[in-house]
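Example (one chain per record):
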Amino acid sequence: MRIKAIVFAIVFLLCSISFSRTLLLFKGSEKGYGENILKSLVVPVLEKLGESYSLKDTETDFEINFLDYDTIITCYYSSKMQNAKVYLKKLFDFLLNGGKLFIINNIGAALDENGNNPNLSHLNSIYNLLGFYYKYSWRKEKIKSVNIDNEYLLKQPIMDNERGIETFEIFSPKVKIIEEIETDTGRYPTVFLGEKGGMILYDYAFSDDESLFLDIGKIVEELLCRRGSLENKVLIIGYSQDVRKTFENSLFEIENKNNIDSIDSFECENFKAIILIDDASPTANSKIQKYLENGGTVIWIGNGSKEIYGEIVFKSDFLMIPKDIVFDKRTVKFQQATKGSKVIIQVNDTVVSWISKVGKGNIFFFPRSLLGKVTRGILMNGLLLASNSIICPIVNSYSVFLDDFPLPSYNSVKEEIIKEFGNIDTSQFYYQVWWKDMKELSRELNLKYTAALVTTYNSSKSFPNDFSDFLISVPLSYLEMLLKSSEIEIGIHGYNHLSPIKDNWTKEDLVKSYKALKIFVENIAENYKPLSFVAPNNKIDDMGFEALRSAFPSIKLIGTAYSGNDEYSEFGVKNGVVILPRTTSGYYPIEKLILSSISAVLNMGTFQYFVHPDDLFSNDRNPEKLSWKDMKKNFKEFIETIQRYYPWLRNNYSYEAGVIFRDYFTKRPDIRYSQDRIEIIVEPETRLPRYFFLKTNKNFNIIGGKIIYNYKNNVYVVEMFETPMIIQEYD
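Predicted structure:
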């Protein structure tokens, strides 16, 4: 006999389920068949877990209300039942209401004692909700082999005799096949379990000598524990937009409460983290204290009882950052760290943000005064470090934008250009120096650029819409080459540089300016259809959005600025269009570029970098009056630092990024935790691979994915290439 092990090494969740109820159903007329099996193999598991249960004879207690229970486990020998259709309808309503059903042997209602038999549709109405369907095809066959998940194997089975074959087809990726047999006619699942329940064909739990070889109790235990399995869900006590958006960006489910008193103790265990926005210590609350002792993660965002002024330093000893990074100087209120805490942020030599162990869990303290978009990545990195086991989706995509390029130069003369390059004008600098150097950097650093074309800097808001500024000062051969090139993506920045907002334009005039731009560009490159748009001055509103989409329905992505406060300054999808705010811009200081980038890299695995061809002689973008040589050197050093420390980050054209981001936000993975196991499932049409940050303090194996990078402190970057992906932890 050949046994194939499909090794998933499942150890079950230690559930707190005393508040739930299970209904056990048997038929009294079967003279103890189902009742004895339930009492001997199922009841001991329920009692071990502290589960409340009722054992009922479905033939004498037919009026029992199924909706009073969370789980139903049935064990019937025969397929006949009085009022079978009524029974099946009650099971159907029970499943629709969120219940779980587990069937031992057969559903027990395929035939009606009075002859009013259910048909296949009645049966599959139940089975389909469990993730499989049934075909009438019972017969006896010789078993060639049995494939069993070793975790459920009590001993090797003996199946020399012919056995009854039932044909069940599993269609849900959430249903796991525990046992499968093979005959001359094919392979057939015989024991399977999913989120909503499952089935054991009882003939396939016992050997020919009637000894039990399948651990039915373990399957029942997993069924109950799956009911209480954790999702990627956090509880936020209090309110902060930055806190909420941090977790929304990482695709967490969020529950918000004003205070901890509004939630029961046992409910705390349903969250991967509790975020407490309060000055009171988490350990002062008995519910949170218990949650911590059981291994929970608490992020405490408060003012604390102490205060200090000085230089804020993010520490690389524990954070996933290339080096210690100085933020700025300010006054910080904080709570003093306990002895042995991990240092996250310091002011001068004083620890103001830390991670401390409490019981089996951890508290991560973060000063409320440091909340902001630039620290969202630090907050998420702290969650990873404080968690014992957690997985967080990331985008894994960054783009480099050449903003305001190509652009009209007006052939002006700039002192900064003459000082470094001699007597050349802005047009010569843009196209013969700056663009030439940027192309070389692209090849050297393996970068993809997305440019944002602007045709004039006039302030015209209505007719005439003239393109003479551009035609006089820009070599059209360059523009034609760029528009047709496969080496750079050319998006649009607007007819002129006026922000498309209602304070600047009427919708009619804005649409006309965009239509004029569309015709102008099509005269140069007939089949050109821009996919990306960068908002001038990074501002756009609903009126501008509608005008843009009216003139350019091809637009799939809009670039804005992360520093704003409106909906267009957050990553997301609006009416099918991806909003992609820039997080990083300019050439220096490098430390500031890194900090602004990791605000999004550590939050959701992305950053968006913008540079301009006229940065050299811009007073606000080049306040230190660096030469182009020095700025170019800084650009290279910054990109190389990012590539060295985050080598897993993929660089994409913005149109590629748009596809990735749209998928990220609209096809959320289903993440479930049970003890020592994390299961990630995506919809069948979701593009793979998908990417995640994983933190675990244990050893682990991955099925359906692989590690592509690992950091200190047991943080990993994982690529998912199959669904489901399973992280199996072990000591």
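Caption: The longest helix spans residues 426-445.
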